[in-house]
Amino acid sequence: TKHVIRNIPWTTAKEFTVERGQQQIEELISTWDIHESWLHHAEFLEEEELKDSKRYHYRACWGIPTRRKPIPRATASIYFVIVISKFKPDTIPVEVFYRLESSRLIRRPEQCQFREKWLQDIIENKIVYIERL
């Protein structure tokens, strides 16, 4: 089946704040086709100053709590980076990237639709690893 890539209109560099970045990450997450049993918590991690840009790092931590296990056995994190160029006009939208905790592949929301299976795979792999210990 073909996945429709859903994205949101990102704020401009001029209007960006750490809080606005977190709100927009939540907006993006709301476009993902994920079962309602998944819960997440998103947080700002740090600001990084580079020669050509400022990068704002966020994390969304996912799990499926249940009545019997309100604290999930394992969680999966998605790391987001919002990039503001120091050379481009501040009237253009910020750039956004994300990656899964288990991967070095960097994805762009406008180029790749998020898949719930990625979260499931991370958690299943962690549980297998925990059970082997």
TrEMBL record:
GO terms for molecular function: protein kinase A regulatory subunit binding. GO terms for cellular component: cAMP-dependent protein kinase complex. It holds the Pfam family AKAP28. It comes from the Eukaryota. InterPro entries: AKAP, AKAP_28. This is AKA14 protein. It comes from Aegithalos caudatus (Long-tailed tit). The lineage of its organism: Eukaryota, Metazoa, Chordata, Craniata, Vertebrata.
